[in-house]
């Protein structure tokens, strides 16, 4: 991976150092909270594929996350399907939902705020559906049976969970990196930068956008299925609620949309901030969202390219500038 | 090479092109002249597959293009440089150029890149500069260079001289001749009648969706009617 400044390298090193230090923290709180942040980092990377690289900002990534979680949960709870298989199908279900929403929205040429609103509407419709049918457990949600063991994809040991999540996040980032370096990634950026120009070059922009939604959906479904295996319980608000959609977009925007590291950096930064606030003011639930909103406003105003963009300005390295940003 | 026969097209219920026959042969520069709003861009969009004709056929080297997707048409060797310098302003010049190499093998990309750099030395000097910071004329060159990256046999240019200073216009037409000498046929859409007829072998004059004059450039240039209507002399 190529970084074009000392600042970016420092930022990435700091994040890696933090992730490593969690293994040695005396208090288990750190690991618990970082585990949550890592799952959010996956849905954030999901948003980053479409919103960051492709410029299609969604307000409804919960639609993908929830679909992955519910597909896996329904298969396990209602049909007794093997958890590994159910997990895999959760990813596929997320991808299918992404493709479906994309195909529909882009068929009608929805862009910008219209696309954002339609994705939001999808997530809300799915949330209401999930709370209304028996198969989804209705209002009471779905609970997996506690059966620890590798065969059931349930790991009671926190350190094991943490390590596995680190591997998953690394893989998701690797896939993102490969997308970024591929022709597909270049076309996706072209769509973001100037869709008319991209089309004039012969790029099938509709296809590229739908494909991006499918990949994003797979990541989103993965995040949802991970959440399920960790908590063994989901309900419609937890996985289809708008809090998920907000978490999905805020990390990449703070960290740097359209970069490989941005979603992880932004998500970790925000969660550290939220966690800190919780300790300082323990009697103010929801305070973290107030803080997120403030940070988001500041980021949009002062850091148009996120923390990665800011870090890029510090100690710029002499690279050929036509090599793109890491 | 490119052949249009009986092309009619429009937007919704409004018809713009009223039955056009046009052909571009291999190695030619053909000019398509006409004033604002007569359907020049519409005709380009029909050829590039963005608009489906309501009647008539478009063929390129014998293949019917009517129902082809724009991406397929580019892959077949027709590049379209749209009107209004549609570049990627936040990407560098080399990134812009590489994006033009749609569906080409990587080995050809570097070859095409070198070829474009030779034709457009101004771009070569600024490969890492962001495209949005180029001057208007340079942006137009970039758009054309990017079109060349797809290794076209036919290049369609929609008003390349629009908004350029007289010196830049000269340079632009020189470049078009250079590209043509490199073996690329050109369909040149222009309002700059004088300059276009200077570089083209043949030309069509369009008014309200119909060709009102066509023929050898030299003949048209001598035509009193055309001189009166388009050159004011
Ligand atoms: N997308 C569109 N929807 C509806 N009408 C359109 C559309 N694009 C063009 N038109 C109309 O079609 C007619 C021909 O437009 P066209 O863009 O082909 O003209 P042009 O010859 O390229 O003009 P110019 O030299 O100004 O670019 C005009 O009357 C225009 O208003
Ligand atoms: Mg036009």
TrEMBL record, chain A:
It is a multi-pass membrane protein. The keyword Membrane applies. Its main location: membrane. It is found in: Cell membrane. This is Branched-chain amino acid ABC transporter permease. The chain crosses the membrane at residues 7-24, 30-50, 62-79, 85-106, 160-179, 212-234, 249-273, 285-303. The lineage of its organism: Bacteria, Pseudomonadati, Pseudomonadota, Alphaproteobacteria, Hyphomicrobiales. Pfam families: BPD_transp_2. Keywords: Cell membrane, Membrane, Transmembrane, Transmembrane helix. InterPro entries: ABC_transp_permease (IPR001851), LivM-like (IPR043428). It comes from the Bacteria. The keyword Protein biosynthesis does not apply. It comes from Tianweitania aestuarii.
From TrEMBL, chain B:
The keyword Nucleotide-binding applies. Keywords: Amino-acid transport, ATP-binding, Nucleotide-binding, Transport. The keyword ATP-binding applies. It comes from the Bacteria. Belongs to the ABC transporter superfamily. InterPro entries: AAA+_ATPase, ABC_transporter-like_ATP-bd, ABC_transporter-like_CS, BCAA_Transport_ATP-bd_LivF, P-loop_NTPase. This is ABC transporter ATP-binding protein. Coiled coil: none annotated. Residues 2-233 form the ABC transporter domain. It comes from Tianweitania aestuarii. SUPFAM superfamilies: P-loop containing nucleoside triphosphate hydrolases (SSF52540). GO terms for molecular function: ATP binding. Gene3D superfamilies: P-loop containing nucleotide triphosphate hydrolases.
């Amino acid at each position: 991976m190529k970084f074009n400044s000392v600042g970016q390298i420092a930022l990435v090193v700091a994040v890696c150092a933090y992730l490593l230090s969690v293994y040695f923290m005396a208090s288990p709180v750190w690991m618990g909270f970082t585990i949550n942040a890592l799952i959010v980092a996956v849905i954030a990377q999901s948003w980053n594929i479409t919103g960051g690289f492709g410029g299609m900002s969604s307000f409804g990534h919960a639609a993908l996350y929830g679909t992955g979680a519910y597909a896996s949960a329904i298969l396990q709870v209602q049909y007794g399907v093997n958890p590994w298989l159910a997990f895999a199908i959760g990813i596929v279900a997320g991808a299918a939902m992404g493709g479906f929403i994309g195909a529909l929205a882009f068929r009608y040429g929805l862009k910008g705020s219209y696309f954002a609103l339609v994705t939001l509407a999808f997530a809300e419709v799915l949330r209401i559906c999930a709370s209304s049918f028996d198969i989804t457990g209705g209002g009471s949600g779905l609970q997996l049976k506690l059966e620890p063991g590798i065969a059931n994809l349930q790991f009671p040991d926190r350190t094991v969970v943490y390590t596995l999540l680190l591997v998953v996040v690394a893989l998701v980032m690797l896939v993102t990196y490969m997308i970024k370096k591929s022709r597909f990634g270049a076309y996706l950026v072209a769509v973001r930068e100037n869709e008319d120009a991209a089309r004039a070059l012969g790029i099938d922009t509709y296809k590229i956008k739908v494909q991006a939604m499918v990949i994003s959906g797979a990541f989103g479904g993965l995040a949802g299925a991970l959440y399920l295996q960790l908590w063994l319980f989901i309900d419609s608000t937890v996985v289809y609620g708008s809090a998920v959609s907000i978490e999905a977009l805020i990390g990449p925007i703070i960290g740097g949309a359209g970069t490989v590291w941005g979603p992880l950096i932004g998500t970790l930064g925000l969660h550290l901030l939220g966690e800190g606030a919780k300790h300082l003011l323990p009697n103010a639930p929801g305070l973290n969202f107030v803080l997120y909103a403030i940070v988001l406003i500041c980021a949009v105003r002062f850091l148009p390219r996120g923390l990665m963009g800011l870090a890029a300005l510090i100690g710029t390295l002499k690279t050929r500038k036509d090599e793109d940003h890491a | 090479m490119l052949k249009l026969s009986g092309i009619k097209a429009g937007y919704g219920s409004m018809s713009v092109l009223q039955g056009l026959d046009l052909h571009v042969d291999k190695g030619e520069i053909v000019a398509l002249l006409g004033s604002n709003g007569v359907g020049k861009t519409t005709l380009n969009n029909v050829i590039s597959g963005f608009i489906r004709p309501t009647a008539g056929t478009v063929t390129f080297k014998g293949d019917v293009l009517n129902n082809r997707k724009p991406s397929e048409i580019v892959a077949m060797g027709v590049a379209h440089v749209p009107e209004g310098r549609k570049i990627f302003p936040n990407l560098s010049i080399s990134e812009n150029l590489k994006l033009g190499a749609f569906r080409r093998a990587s080995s050809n990309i570097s070859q095409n890149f070198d070829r474009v750099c030779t034709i457009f030395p101004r771009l070569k000097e600024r490969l890492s500069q962001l495209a949005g910071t180029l001057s208007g004329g340079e942006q137009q060159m970039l758009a054309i260079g990017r079109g060349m990256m797809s290794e076209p046999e036919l290049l369609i240019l929609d008003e390349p001289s629009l908004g350029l200073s007289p010196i830049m216009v000269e340079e632009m037409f020189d470049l078009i001749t250079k590209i043509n000498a490199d073996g690329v046929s050109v369909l040149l859409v222009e309002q700059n009648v004088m300059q276009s007829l200077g570089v083209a072998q043949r030309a069509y004059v369009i008014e309200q969706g119909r060709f009102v004059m066509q023929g050898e450039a030299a003949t048209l240039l001598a035509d009193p009617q055309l001189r009166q209507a388009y050159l004011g002399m």
